[in-house]
Specification:
Blueprint: H1 2-13, E1 17-19, H2 38-41, H3 50-56, H4 62-67, H5 81-84, E2 93-95, H6 97-108, H7 118-125, E3 146-147, E4 150-151, E5 166-169, E6 175-179, E7 184-188, H8 201-214
Antiparallel strand pairs: 1-2, 3-4, 5-6, 6-7
Length: 221
């Protein structure tokens, strides 16, 4: 996966982004990730769903099994160099906000430099098909709206100029999205983990300033 991403996406776009950090990257450029413990989650139940927190303390739950990989590791282990080098597309992408925004911006403007076809772009911008058994995410224990691997806007998480937008939130407050209506690729990354499942105040303030205050699109939530 790392080689495919490098050959098909990162190299054509000139991205400073890797799935699994190669030895060629200067480690002094990599920010230290300031993490929180499971116990600290108990202090932020106003923003973290209580069922999510409870599930994290149950080692047999889908939530705990999804987050604690490999077994026995903690979030602080993400700063270990041997961990950073592992190819884990879901959790070990390392790069700059500029690169994430550029990747999304390529798709937001049609994706011709990546060979994305109009039919693929059309599928990405369509409304998500409602899941058969409801919107509740069995890992996060909150309602989510995903389509083709990307999260789509919904009432509790409004991003971009319209329902055509799509993106992905990350643990701790990071978020990136493509907005085809405006041609904008947006990204926010941080090295101090927050507790919001999405719309961390740091990220939301930046996104609101861009899409609402500057571009004049809808208010972000």
């Amino acid at each position: 996966m790392a080689q495919f991403f490098a050959d098909e996406v990162a190299t054509p776009l000139g991205l400073d982004f890797h799935i699994g950090l190669p030895a060629s990257v200067d480690r002094d450029r990599v920010a230290h990730l300031h993490c929180w413990s499971q116990a600290e989650m108990m202090l932020h139940l106003k923003v973290l769903p209580m069922r999510t927190v409870a599930a994290m303390f149950n080692p047999r739950s889908l939530t705990s099994r999804a987050f604690i990989i490999p077994k026995g590791m903690t979030l602080d282990d993400c700063n270990r160099d041997d961990y950073r080098a592992v190819e884990m597309p879901a959790s070990n992408g390392i790069g700059t906000a500029r690169s994430v925004a550029k990747a999304y911006g390529s798709v937001a403007t049609g994706g011709s430099d990546l060979g994305i076809t109009p039919s693929t772009l059309d599928a990405l911008t369509q409304l998500a098909t409602p899941p058969t058994n409801g919107m509740r995410d069995k890992v996060l224990h909150i309602d989510t709206v995903f389509s083709l691997g990307y999260i789509k806007p919904f009432p509790k998480f409004v991003f971009g100029a319209s329902s055509k937008a799509f993106g992905t939130m990350g643990l701790g407050g990071s978020f990136g999205c493509a907005d085809p209506d405006t041609g904008i690729g947006f990204a926010y990354v941080m090295n101090r983990l927050g507790f919001h499942p999405w719309s961390d105040p740091r990220e939301l303030g930046l996104r609101q300033a861009l899409f609402h205050d500057i571009v004049g699109a809808r208010s972000q939530t």
